[in-house]
Protein 1
Amino acid sequence: MSEEIDLNQSFKAYDVRGVVGESINAEAVEAIGAAFVDVLSLAGKDVLVGGDMRPTSTTFAQAFARGATYRGANVVMLGLISTDELYFASGKHNAAGVVFTASHNPAQYNGIKMSKAGARPVSSDTGLFDIRDLAQQYLDEGLPVSGDGEQGRISERDVLADYAAYLRELVDLSTIRPLKLVVDAGNGMGGLTTPAVLGDTVLPGLPLDIVPLYFELDGTFPNHPANPLEPENLKDLQAAVLAHGADLGLAFDGDADRCFVIDERGLPLSPSAITALVAVREIARVQAEGEEHPVIIHNLITSKAVPEFVEKSGGVAVMTRVGHSFIKAEMAAQGAVFGGEHSAHYYFRDFYNADTGILAAMHVLAALGGQDLPLSELGREFEPYVATGEINSEVEDKAGAVARVVEHFAGQPVDVTTLDGTTFTAKDGSWWINLRPSNTEPFLRFNGEGATAQIIEPIRDTVLAIVREAHITN
């Protein structure tokens, strides 16, 4: 029943995500479609609508289209798409749009990522909560009579071929040395986009021998969760890279906007290392075109190696808070050429300031295939420090847990800042840690980095013990 859906439960800081039937359903989505059009003044304009392979995505896309056309927008149905396909279509066609996905969340979830025309983000700062509030009103009171306005039309468009061709224009892989790669799509949208972009299903083949893992589109995720940030979900890929003697492995999340990279030894390259590698390449490219001091965006949880490599290459590093809408806004404000996050979101000015995992992967393939070193050696220089990775703690009183850690470091040679969560940095620069409440899940997230494992590991264990109020042992 509509009165049981409280949209406050599913609207997060920069997207919509909820449990199907509990905090999001087709009736709510129809109201959201109407509110999306009204809040963003889209009557008479095109609105792009697509979805991932989750069981409810098609139903939700149709419901959204009903609400949007009722309020006068012309809906262009894109069918099965990855999130970065939406951003490409929104940028290329200068139209607002949505994709139905819950990214890496389990199968019982679905949600919406929204974009204004030109792939500009819709976040809590740029209308997302206004859409929520109006949609809740429509859900509770019914959609208003359209008045004199005409209802919009529905049409269809397939953007996969254009998306693949555009990515190949940005990174030319036609002349690299032959590479074997294993790709784990996790039954997500990477199973559709990888063959189109890197294979030969849409465009001529490249010098790439692709070993597919879990390319079947299945929103119930029968093999493993489509969340490569969790080490457990990389095990099949790591084993396959070794079994096939591959040069590297790629793992995509459910909506295929994030990509993780495994080297030939089966070991992951950190997203910070990928950020640094791509940043150096993009700085060199635009400097050759006459751009003297290109700006690179990184969030505060990426390795401090990222700004070091950026500055050494002649770029300008700008730090921002975590979250795709915040990064995209900063990309636009700064005219940045590239941006990266610790969570393997990678943003490109040439991709409408939006994030695309496969384009970052193409940079890695170009760098690897343009020389003879294995990826482990090529990537080593970009990982000079030891990172803890992201560690989640489910704690009831997040603020209290952070306060205990602040108290622990009081009087020690440690700087404390609060740009996004709380960051503790040793005054001698030998380590830093960050504690940040998740915007989408009930966790307090820990990230840290040190000059050596001997420095950062005891700090990690102590802080996690304080956060969890329990002794942590390795």
Protein 2
Amino acid sequence: MSTPERLVQILANKGSLPPASPWAGAVAQVRREHFLPDIFEADNRTFDRSRDPKRWAWAVYADLPLVTQINQGQDLGEDAYELPTSSSSMPTVMLQMLDLLDVHDGNTVFEAGAGTGYNAAWLCHRLGSGHVTTMDVDPGITKQAEANLNRAGFTPRVLCGNAEDGSPDGGPYNRMIATFTVADIPYAWVEQTTESGRIVAPWGGGIHHYSHAVLDVHNGRASGRFAGYPAFMRTRTQPAQGGRLRDFYHHQDEATPSRTDVSPRDISGDADALFWIDTAVRDAWHHVGEADDGSEEATLWLFSADHASWATAEYVPGQTSYEVEQYGPRRLWDEAEAAYRKWVAHGRPERDRAGLTVTRDGQHVWLDSEDNIIGTVPATWARPEPQ
């Protein structure tokens, strides 16, 4: 059975959709197949409606994220790295975000990132099409999302443009939701959210990008804490965080060697450590390479998004000193180690103790309370223009 009722059953069994959920009607009545192409990918498998319609329908109503676009729809050649750039999100994660959004009858919502239109359709079902605005930066995706929504019987305002600049001639909105990860919350979103309104957006850089920022707006500022562990695609306005090692690892013979007493495992294996490091080490990403010979050795890689800098730290069980190599204008291991030691000095706080405040001047990470700011994350809108 591959129907909306099957998806309701799956989500109910997992505890993602309680019987009293205000989103139960949307899940049951909005048919996901209206929002999907004939070919998509999930769990590294391709589902083709023409070749195997039953298997395709099974995936449609599974609790899975479905990738609907690679490399912004461009053919970059057979050897190109395949970067997912649009999808239909995992229904469980959609419900988590919408619960955090806390919408009420009569609320207006601005959605940054239309994607397939499926999330906007749930919002339309709940609030009415006239209360929903969705925007996507990709003209092709925007056009298809609008067609999908219309086919399903919904007519929200569908816009094409950079949603990080806000909605032109729109708002203020009671709620603002993003379906892609941002390294900083655009102040335009704060400006276009009503007093006591709420912003929910996947937040983080490349070191750790698995958090929902849940921010309430008061007096021209937004503040709140983090929740969940979502994995969303990154905004297209900033470099992608990730790729093939061979595209980032270069000039090995020019690297600077050193040693450290900080175990690479203590960094890579601790989500809280990675979260706090990410607040200080931006425009970079990491990868852990595990030895396949049973030695339990590993390499922690750090790469800058501009391809110019990299670092490696070699983990060997039983050792207390670890080999490090760094190349490029940035010393990425030094940055990560300094941020790690700062986290340790604060008592190794969990992410749940962190909060974020966004003002016109930038965004500030705090520990336990807003007056205990322990880091300022550079915000793109607050950075000075190059001279």
Protein 3
Amino acid sequence: MSKEKLTKRVIDKLEARDKDYIIFDSELPGFGIRVMPSGKCFFLIQYRRHGRTRRVMIGQFGPVTAEIARREAIRMLGNVRGNDGDPAAVRDRERQSATVKELGDRFLKEHVATRCKPTTQAEYRRAVELFINPFFRNQRARTVSSADVSELHGAHAHIPYQANRTLGVLSKMMNLAETWGIRDKHTNPCEDIARYPEHKRERFLSAKEMKRLGEVLTQFEADGSESSYAVAAFRLLLLTGCRLREIQTLKWAYVDLDEHQIDLPDSKTGAKTVHLGEAAVELLKKLPQADGNPHVIAGKFKDTHLTDLQRPWRRIRKAAGLDNVRIHDLRHTFASGGLLVGESLPMIGKLLGHTQVQTTARYAHLANDPVKAAATRISERLAAALG
């Protein structure tokens, strides 16, 4: 292809090949664009320094326009020709100097804080500060290898779920390190690490267990052992199937008792409507609204919600003899309860706010319980008739 001025029109015509190739600008020597086999294009400059040919990426075509790339190329090439700097050397120094901890700090500040929801932010920060930083310490981000990542992953084999989450966070960090020029392209050391198998827990409360839980909730609320708002939170979690944060941060402004629903402006799956049964509506009607506090599960201070429901839950479940039951299992119990009264999986999924059918399908085996019970009753009667 003969040289042309690199404009959007010209670049849009460039076709991907089996191998990457570079097209240089006809007007600005040293300014070019690399076309990858994937079809993505990256602006660059090329120059010679101390007898060596050096290349420095400017940015990807699309996010970076041809006009912006040309202005940046003029500036960078001007520095080279004026002996004011070597962009490749500056780039190399930055790559070599960035530690995993520095990468993690930038990841949390520039990516997580601006793109993730509060619960995800907390999970990512926990993975970075408790697992990634202590392991790598001041190791350079560009030197992290698959062997290093495998060692980190293996060190937490006893907690496979956390090991896999940490691996996922580190992988995202390494992808961004490539985007930010800290690591070379296509060098993510996490890609070949196999995740540990995860077995989803589907614990739900039996009728006897729910009776014990109800007795303890009533007792703890009556004698003041736990806040009435904490007790109400656990009852609402069971009666609505909501996620913990959806109830914990719930505001009265989202509640419509006349329509028997809660309109959440945001949740794990985005905005959603939670339909309320009569028991949940009656609970909300009786729950006092704290003066000047917009939250349903009011905290101790003005305008706050209860921030810690884990410790009250541990005390309650211990008193009820339910030591292995998590708060999230109340959501599972709501789902199983729906199936046991004959509701379909699509209906359960709608009530839970699932966006994927596969998510609800994990409860499918519970739908067989009523059928098995009927088969037992029939077979017992027939067996009795046979003598």
